[in-house]
Amino acid sequence: MKMEAGGSLVSCREDISSLFPAQTPSAKHKDLCRQFSAVRKVCGDGNCFYRAFCFAHLESVRLNARALQRFKDKIIQSGKMLASAGFEESSFKQHLNTVVNVVEQCQADEQEHTLLRLLNEPMTSDSLVQYLRLLTSAHLQNHADFFCNFVEAPNLQVYCHQEVEAMAMECDHVDILALSQALDINIHIVSMEGDDQQLAHHIIPEGAQPSLHLLHRTSHYNILYPRPQL
């Protein structure tokens, strides 16, 4: 498990150069520095994508009362998605309530430190992650005709149970697509993987205007902050 500085689940913003090696930065690091000014590091415990996604989205809408309420309404409605996928209400109700409660605390206090405190409380933070995992699983199963073509498992249900719903299981591209669709949230993933000297950019869904930016490197996700467009 890669804990970030101070053992936090989600760190404070740091300069983008904190990701650079001590030696001469690579072409990818230089490219990253040109496009992004800061990074927020997320604990590498297998839940990093879901935690980064949750924090980054709430941070992006915390000063927009209408968008925050829209997200809250979407979460409340999403319980129906889980029920239609066969989940018993008792298996997700507590986690759904946690997400709604966190959104309400953000509505009551728009300060960044409130969101940071909530996402660093292990029980609260893990409950958020668990709900997003269950929601991802439900969306995959409710759209099985499409998603079954992209998973390597005996069947989609087995994949969801073993790879998606279980905590600390790393996230696959198909899971990211499912969660993006389920909550109608556009994601920009910047990947440092591969031998190519250039960063790879993935917009989910393709052609959308992303509201959050995540860095993917060695199976790990952190939150990125773009430099202002001049």
Largest sheet: 6 strands, mixed
CATH class of the domain at 47-185: Mainly Alpha
Q: Briefly note the structural class of the backbone.
A: alpha+beta
Strand order of the largest sheet: 1-2-6-5-3-4
Q: In CATH terms, what is the architecture of the domain at 47-185?
A: Up-down Bundle
Strand content: 15-25%
Radius of gyration, in Å, reads 17 Å
- The helix-strand sequence is EHEHHHHHHHHEEEE
Level of helix content?
40-55%
How does this structure look, described?
With 230 residues, the protein is an alpha+beta fold. It has a domain of 139 residues: Peptidase C65 Otubain, subdomain 2 (3 helical TM bundles of succinate and fumarate reductases), CATH 1.20.1300.20. The chain has nine helices and six strands, in the order βαβααααααααββββ. The protein has a six-stranded mixed beta sheet with strand order 1-2-6-5-3-4. Strand 5 and strand 6 form a beta hairpin. It is globular, with a radius of gyration of 17 Å. It starts with 9 loop residues before the first strand and ends with a strand. 33% of the residues are buried. The N terminus is likely disordered.
